Amino acid sequence: MKGLWRAREASTVAILAIEILFFTWYLWPEAGRPHPFLNLGNVLLIFKYSSIYGIAAIGAAIVIISGGLDLAPGAVIALTTVVTGYCFVQAQWPLGPSILAGLLVGLTTGALSSWLVVRVGITPFIATLGVMGIARGAAYVVTEARYYDLSARLPRDWRLAGVSIDWAGPIIMIGLAAVFQVLMRRFQWGRSIFAVGGNETAAIFSGIRVGRVKTSAYLIAGLLASISGVVLAIVQGQGKADLANGYELDIIASAVVGGTSLSGGRGSVAGAVLGALIFGVLRNALPQIPGATFYDRLIVGVAVIGIVVMDRTIGSRGSKAP
Amino acid sequence: MSSGLEFRGVSKSFGAVRALDDVSFGVTAGETHACVGENGAGKSTLLKVLAGIVAPDRGEIRWQDERLRLTGPRDALERGIGLVSQETLAFPNLSVSANIFAGRERTLRGGRLDEPAMRARTAALLADLHVPVSPDTGMDRLPAAYAQLVQVARALAFDCRVLVLDEPTTSLTDAEVDHLFGVLGRLKVQGVTVLFVSHRLPEVFRLCDRITVLRDGRLVTTVARAETSPDAIVRAMVGREPPARLAGSGEDTRGRALLAVRDFTRRPAFEYVSFDVHAGEVVGLFGLVGSGRSELLETIFGLHARHAGTLAIDGHPISPASPAEAARAGLALVPEDRQRQGLFANLSVRHNLALPRAAQRRLLTIHDHDERQLAQHAVDALSIRTSSLESAPAELSGGNQQKVVTGKWLATEPRVLLLDEPTKGVDVGAKFEIHGIIRQQVRDGMGCLMASSDLPEVLAIADRILVMRQGGLRGEITGAMATEENVMRLAAHETRSSGGSVPAGPASGGHS
User: Fold this and answer.
1) Nearest CA to CA, how far is B327 from chain A (Å)?
2) Predicted confidence (pLDDT) per residue in B140-149, tens digit
């Protein structure tokens, strides 16, 4: 495990811990009443909603570390819910194939993004901005202002191996974070991602197949966004074109708050998931503070800047090579 | 020496490296003065001190009997000291006029840019320098020579009294050099003092009144051109006589042909280049900038597509389409620009050292233990001075960074090592160590092709020297014929016949 878990993630954990302690203290209830923040139901809620962008944030972190950027995940999530919903509700497919069709959405958009970036040579910002528009647009074209109600065909109180389906998102998020943390730190593929993002020219000179490395990053980011989409479709029971609106920025912010540098070459997928949880907690707890209702977006915005600046001031991360 | 430019006891250290050590000499007002020395001799640092970019630790610079206390490059410019630096420092995205006035734009009242005034001044300056381009031309559309002259114009735009040129001719053709020298001649008539830094002695002798020689940061001598000779200057630069040759002395101790290159062509960089590299030898590849040597190495290494020709390693034909394939075939390239092409600033020294080997072997997972062993071995074998294997490359000196880039490729155990400027920007000590490493590898059976524009280096460690000019191989020089003069004559296109050179390869109609 040594080397898998670094100061980088530790400082994100510390920020998350401080945040949790603060809200636990601030929202401490009168004697005899349940804690509104610190209870199992609420923790599940936080995990459930964080996992939607947390899963995609893993992919976003990988793309950003490789020196790229992906603006498409929000739209890809929406298109995935629509495609899964269409297959499951409209075409009456079984759930498994419907999910696979949804996952195909992310692989397709990922392939398109990587083709535009690697082969055509468009800058990632523009390429994925275009793919974002295409994916969101395709979702509207398919649904034509309708939405698919998956919940009608899904079992009520659905349990898998005795665990509520509500836990699927968090479990998938944590599982994927663990897998990709290992892939990024322990596998040559991950090292190549860091190398390409750190110095693309040197990577070419070092015999790294830069095109393939970048392609793999966008494919994974697309696939992970689609997994988010499938989770969203099942958890919310909906396939809808306007879901996950603006999530791409939350997803990128999660990666950045988790220690990923937008200039590439530095970062962590575990950090991205922790970053998503930091946002999840903020979004969950702020509305519970009386009078803070209208301030939550403002506070989240300030928090993004604050955390990144604090992090740089502490200087523990970014300075040390992975 | 009054009323000129005077260096008095100037010293400057970077960390442990003494770049300048108590340097004192004078430049008479109005003279054209050369400053020569090997790479790492301290020339560039001296110029940076003069241009206000670097503050000296000790000593002072006087101009017309007044001490210059420079606060920065801008201050130097305002006092009439203009630097034309080695790298073309320009804004490719801006026009010529914008480049000349960058940071010192003329403005109208209210801060609006006075474009007509700047354009008119630019046009006048360009006409003066015989540069036939419009002030509105984009900088990125200028050929190298004009870009260089725009820098001169930038210096002259502000009543320049001392013009400092750092290796201004490295990227110029002969005709362009003539043009530049014509301009410098006219400036001299106008009374401008010129400090000219170059390692091209023929140019120095052609242009300059007096010559100052630096070695290892110290002043060796200042002599008038009439009282010295190129040989004497080379001896002063090198500080030993004759330059120690590390190269093997025997003619035919070399082994079989490891790398065979035939009719290798990539237009317009080079055409019909054929040669062998044998086991146990260092082949020097000398050529001025623009001769096509870097492109040749990079094409052999699969970085660019070739248009014609074949490659074989150990008699087996190979055609690497990428560095990955080249590395697997037993080639390695230590590139010219270690910052841009060699190092990963975001990865530790250990990871940097392990990367090409892992890519070459298509390793799936990373084994910390193996990596550490490999890195430690490289650090020991190349005596890389680093506080730890986990340090970032930025913490290392230039010489040690270069050793990391060399070491990461030696870890792939190549059959043939291609080196492009292996000691560029490296201090003299590290340079010597790197030469030792190269010779050691060759003794162990590797073949080595070393491209360098550092002639003393090529002469010192190459067993034989291939000379490139304008994309073609112009000759091969071995043994006693390997003198600076013979190599330079081939490289710089002097048709005077000489006994030392054996013309090789079809003389193609090169691209002027």
Assistant:
1) 7
2) 888 777 888 8
